[in-house]
Amino acid sequence: MGEREIIVPELNNETIEAMIYVVRGEKVMLDFELAKIYGYETKNFNKQVKCRLVLYM
Question: Is the residue at 24 inside a domain?
């Protein structure tokens, strides 16, 4: 089966800083933006985070 190609954006400090939000005093990034950085689809990225939740805490 054909796989879709995922385009990874050019990353620099300004791009990453624009993806960081402050919510209740904590810096956070949204899942779809992290998935873009790592070159995954959001659904697959979330699966990986669930499987490795201990590593992300």
Answer: yes
